[in-house]
Write a structure and sequence with these properties.
Largest sheet: 11 strands, mixed
Radius of gyration: 24 Å
Strand content: 25-35%
Shape: globular
Number of strands: 31
Structural class: alpha+beta
Length: 464
């Protein structure tokens, strides 16, 4: 069996913790592993790592590779050059496997879901595999725990066998009244977005119901390399697999699964999965409450003090604060979309950005300058790089820095500093046990991350 992990979502409803360049699948939400890492480990219980293919977009490729490399020595990854929703992503992934001679059963899973009961999930997958081998496309329905308006629904009332049902229709995210009607009828399941099928069966179904996607998919040839060419992929329509295939095909079977599933798509979902105090509050980070009930208070950096709150979501990050009623968390996406529309940076990236070598935090910025605190982990190494539009000044705060500047090496102790001129090749490394922290002051007319020209990189970020 093969696994395809869809790792390209934006997680906009979890703003401000989730950002466009660091979405929810990469986050460690009150755990020691990200949702992506947990998804990969879950598939390792079902198949070998050489059979797991992850697909993400170019913006997240480096972060996805870094996280998966902590689990697997050589994770198999495809990079989408443009965001085109799940139907194109799944289609090119299946084409990749077919080009490698793998016409096997494939399990497709999103990278940002929580599954508490791994054994129950594994059992359902094993049952579903027999159906997929018979030529069915299997979807995994979740028994509704309530009238949720943030999920799509699957109507399935006619039994196929002891553990599966025929799919009668897919339903889009309903309003509250309709969701209550669905749940009361007992005929509907939440649509988990998890699918299983044989590769050739999927392609034939795609050819019948989404011929445009099928024809473009056939233009790709993965026999020689793993590159998804932009000029071809950009012709793809942006459409979900539900719209493109699942709602039209006749060979869809629902395998209900009760595995503690949650897509963690909104802040009320984060509230639901976490333990509460005696007043029903979830408190994460530096939080103090007085006379608060049934609320979520999430602190990333500063102390949050809540007084007299009831059914409130309050989330703090270094550059944004979200406050909303708990029953309005689906509308957080509207805030995210407005920030994106007006090009507000808080939709895009955190002030703290994680990299394979450690992280940096933006401390201050203004016209022509930007100040960062850079933390390099033990044995971390920034790429050999240069900049066309900015100079840099580094001051070591703690640890010991090994700096390469214009083919010369320097060892800098705390209090030492060095200037990095425009267009000069340079690198920063920490070959020691102690964490390295420096202050970086950038000066120039164009202070953006895109102004990095990489020449050598131990994390594979230099394209051949």
């Amino acid at each position: 069996m093969y696994g395809i992990i869809l790792a390209g979502g934006s997680g906009s409803r979890l703003w401000p913790l989730s950002r466009e360049l660091y979405p929810k699948q990469l986050l460690k939400i009150n755990t020691d592993k990200s949702l992506l890492e947990m998804t990969y480990l879950r598939l390792l219980n079902l198949t070998d790592e050489k059979n797991i293919l992850s697909i993400t977009n170019a913006k997240h490729f480096s972060d996805v590779k870094t996280q998966l490399s902590s689990i697997s020595k050589d994770p198999l990854l495809l990079s989408e050059p443009a965001q085109k929703n799940t139907a194109p992503a799944i289609s090119v992934s299946v084409k990749y496997l077919l080009d490698k001679g793998k016409d096997d059963v494939i399990l497709v899973v999103p990278s940002d879901h929580l599954i508490k009961d791994e054994k129950a999930f594994k059992k359902s997958v094993e049952n579903a595999k027999t159906l997929a081998e018979e030529g069915y496309i299997v979807t995994f329905g979740i028994k509704p725990a309530g009238a949720e308006t943030g999920y799509g629904y699957i109507k399935s009332s006619k039994k196929n066998n002891d553990f599966s049902y025929k799919v009668e229709e897919f339903k889009e995210k309903p309003d509250k009244k309709t969701a209550e009607k669905y749940v009361k009828s007992g005929k509907y399941y939440w649509n988990s977005g998890i699918f299983m099928f044989k590769a050739s069966v999927f392609m034939e179904t795609l050819k019948e119901f989404a011929p445009e996607i099928y024809e473009i998919t056939q233009e790709f040839n993965f026999t020689k390399n793993n590159q998804i060419e932009f000029t071809k992929f950009d012709k793809m329509p942006s459409i979900s697999i539900d719209y493109a295939v699942m709602e039209k095909a006749k060979n869809i079977i629902n395998v209900p699964v009760d595995c503690g599933w949650n897509d963690l798509g909104s802040w009320d979902a984060i509230y639901d999965i976490n333990s509460k105090d005696k007043e029903g509050n979830v408190k994460i980070g530096a939080v103090q409450t007085e006379n608060c009930k049934n609320s979520l208070l999430f602190s990333s950096n500063r102390l949050i003090a809540g007084v007299g709150l009831d059914d409130i979501i309050l989330v703090e990050t270094s550059d944004a604060i979200l406050a909303c009623k708990k029953d309005k968390t689906q509308d957080v996406k509207k805030v995210f979309d407005k920030l994106k529309e007006i090009k507000d940076e808080t939709h895009l990236v955190h002030t703290t950005v994680y990299r394979p070598w450690g992280y940096y935090t933006v401390l201050n910025q203004g016209e022509g300058y930007l100040t960062k605190m850079i933390c390099v982990s033990s044995h971390g190494q920034l790429s050999l790089q240069s900049h066309n539009f900015r100079s840099e000044h580094w001051v070591v705060l703690s640890g010991t820095a090994r700096v390469t500047l214009d083919n010369k090496n320097y060892i800098l102790k705390p209090g030492s500093s060095i200037d990095i001129p425009v267009k000069v090749k340079h690198s920063l490394g920490n070959p020691y046990k102690e964490e390295l922290k420096i202050i970086e002051v950038q000066k120039g007319d164009k202070l953006v991350e895109e102004d990095i020209i990489r020449y050598k990189d131990i994390y594979g970020r230099v394209k051949a």
